[in-house]
Design brief:
Blueprint (H helix, E strand, L loop, with lengths): L6 E7 L6 H13 L4 E6 L2 E2 L9 H12 L5 E3 L2 H4 L3 E2 L1 H11 L4 E7 H5 L7 H7 E8 L10 H6 L4 E5 L6 H9 L10 H9 L7
Parallel strand pairs: 1-2, 1-6, 2-4, 3-5, 6-7, 7-8
Helix pairs in contact: 2-9, 4-6
């Protein structure tokens, strides 16, 4: 009999703030990849972001609220706790050590996938995990958009996502203008943002 291999998803991101699109992606991955567990990991020091992220403790707390009650999702604080820049390859190395017999699946968005060859030690990264790209179902020309990437990543998986026009950038803009964001983020997250006066225009 073939040994059962644990299927471990890895979903990193700024989660600044976490929104309904993040949760939809996690649920899609759990279902389509038949994951046993999914680690949702807020970024520590983001080497690739041109703006300063909201304090790690706030993003971690909001991520816990967003994913609360979602079966098989673990919010993972390892990158927030780590000093220095957050590199995905380091996180995957740690998770491979924690789950030595597992297959890791790294979830990335379309933009992240296209930029993958610019990531720190990306060749090592793709040896550690199968890359899974969340492709919007409404994306025009979606069939050919990942052909170049597939030549680099033979095991590339495409996750079919429902069309969700939600972005953290737009949510931050709305909050700066004191607009309602409840349709875009879950109510506990909205309450946390309000209580801590996050994303207010200076």
């Amino acid at each position: 009999m073939e040994p059962v291999v644990l299927r471990v998803g890895v979903f990193g991101g700024a989660f600044d703030p976490p929104h309904r699109g993040h949760v939809a992606l996690a649920q899609t991955a759990l279902q389509q990849l038949q994951l046993d567990v999914l680690h949702a990991i807020p970024t520590g020091q983001a080497w690739h972001k041109s703006r300063d992220l909201t304090a790690g403790e706030h993003r971690l707390a909001m991520t816990r609220l967003a994913f609360e009650g979602i079966d098989r999702v673990q919010v993972d604080a390892r990158e927030i706790a780590r000093s220095g820049p957050s590199y995905t390859v380091d996180t995957l190395t740690e998770l491979q050590a924690a789950y030595p017999q597992a297959q890791l699946y790294l979830l990335v968005g379309e933009d992240q996938a296209q930029a993958l060859p610019t990531w720190h030690r990306w060749q090592a990264l793709v040896r550690l995990a199968i890359i899974c790209v969340a492709a919007r179902a409404d994306h025009t020309g979606a069939t050919g958009q990942f052909d170049a990437l597939k030549s680099l990543l033979p095991d590339l998986r495409i996750l079919k996502m429902p069309p969700l026009a939600i972005s953290a950038t737009d949510i931050r803009r709305r909050l700066a203008h004191h607009e309602n964001v409840i349709p875009l983020v879950f109510e506990p997250v909205a309450r946390y943002i309000d209580h801590h006066h996050l994303y207010q225009a200076s």
